[in-house]
Specification:
Layout (H helix, E strand, L loop, with lengths): L5 E5 L10 E5 L6 H8 L4 E6 L7 H7 L3 E3 L6 H12 L3 E4 L16 H9 L3 E7 L17 E6 L14 H26 L2
Parallel strand pairs: 1-7, 2-5, 2-6, 3-4, 3-5
Antiparallel strand pairs: 6-7
Helix pairs in contact: 4-5
């Protein structure tokens, strides 16, 4: 990442040094995941769409511990593998919006709440800023040597403390998560001057 762009990492100390943790990352560009993997203080295991696991990328992504997910169905194997990462004290990376979008956390899915409530792992909000515009040489990538800001926020638990995993409890946790992620994104913009 340092060869192609100029990443600046803020707040990495907020990521717990040990134990399970979920990094909830905004997603405006394909480079957001690799940027976080290259700058995070701990190895990150992302849930990545199965379509990315093709050709030479398949052994590479599998080799660095990324998790394949079929987004067209309730992928039980992906859920089990993700929970396994957390049970083993690892770091699970999730794009709560489910796919690339505005990168503003305006629409998040309930999967993040499920993993957090089920595992008891704290969520660390992460804002990746700087990937929004394409470059002149390679339109599909941000301009080479441009600055990225990767801003880690304060860990939090989204549950209500009851341990309930009902649909209502997960919906309420999702609302709390969205509020925290949106607030973190605004704070990250202020901190980074974007």
């Amino acid at each position: 990442m340092n060869t192609l762009w100029r990443p600046r990492v803020l707040g990495a100390w907020q990521v717990p040094a040990t134990g399970p943790v979920i990094l909830a990352v905004n997603h405006a560009h394909n480079v957001d995941g690799p940027m976080l993997m290259g700058t995070a203080p701990r190895p990150v295991h992302f849930l990545i769409k199965k379509e990315a696991f093709i050709g030479p990328l398949n052994p590479f992504l599998t080799g660095i511990g990324q998790l394949k997910v079929d987004r067209s169905t309730a992928d039980r194997a992906a859920v089990t593998n993700a929970l396994g990462v957390l049970e083993n004290g690892g770091v699970l990376g999730i794009f709560p919006e489910g796919t690339r979008g505005g990168g503003d956390f305006s629409s998040i899915r309930a999967g993040l709440a499920y993993f957090a409530v089920r595992s008891g792992a704290p969520i660390v909000p992460v804002a990746v800023l700087g990937s929004e515009r394409g470059g002149r040489l390679i339109r599909a990538l941000p301009p080479l040597r441009s600055r990225f800001d990767i801003v880690f926020g304060e860990p939090f638990h989204p549950g209500d403390g009851s341990g309930r995993r009902t649909r209502k409890a997960l919906d309420e946790a999702t609302v709390r998560i969205q509020e925290r992620l949106t607030a973190h994104l605004e704070n990250a913009k202020r901190l980074s001057g974007r």
